[in-house]
Amino acid sequence: MNLPNKLTMLRIILTPIFLAVLYWGFPGADYAALAIFIIASLTDMLDGKIARKYNLVTDFGKFADPLADKILVVAAMLWFVECGRMPAWMVMIVITREFAVSGLRMIASDNGRVIAAGWSGKVKTASTMVCIVVMLALGPVLESYLQALTSFSAKVPPAYIVWIDPVCGWVITLTTLYSGVEYFVKNKDVIRSA
To answer: pLDDT tier at 79 (50, 70, 90 boundaries)?
Structure first.
């Protein structure tokens, strides 16, 4: 197994560790989980760059890399749903888009065609990763804000904190919808030929 594939596998392995740390809930768990998520996200950037630069692209990498991304992102989003910080319908849109685009790519592959990641897909991935990092980083601040609202003695953090989760949720959802629609519009001939 080459280095890019090892980095992809590391991302897959880090995902349950990321969730375990969040569930464990020890003091500072939010920030430990944030660090794990950032490391896992960086492996996504590194594995592709290394594979292309050193001609280490493999069939395993083509399959496992996007799968590892989906596993990591959906795990984080499901955590936000469980904590009441993101509505489940937003996660359902992300999961549906991922299945649909993967299906489109499979149909294209059967016809000897490769559908590369488009610009909007890259924007979706980057904005999703950034939004998840922001939500993880500000989770403890949001929690202290909500606690402060019920206590007059606590120092109240800025009110904009309560807007972070909805704004990030909408950024993730809208970039996901846009990129999904774009994949299908640009590749409608693949569906016609199926």
So the answer is: very high
Say yes or no to pLDDT of 160 above 80. Answer: no
Token reading at 157 = 């953090």
The answer for residues whose C-beta is within 8 angstroms of residue 63's C-beta and 6 or more apart is: none
The amino acid sitting at 178 is: Y
CA 136 to chain centre: 12
Tokens coding 179: 């990129």
**For residue 21, how far is the Cα from the chain centroid?**
18
pTM attached to this predicted model: 0.88
Q: How far is CA 92 from CA 66, 74, 123, in A?
A: 18, 10, 19
pLDDT for 77 equals: 97
The Cα 139–Cα 142 span in angstroms is: 5
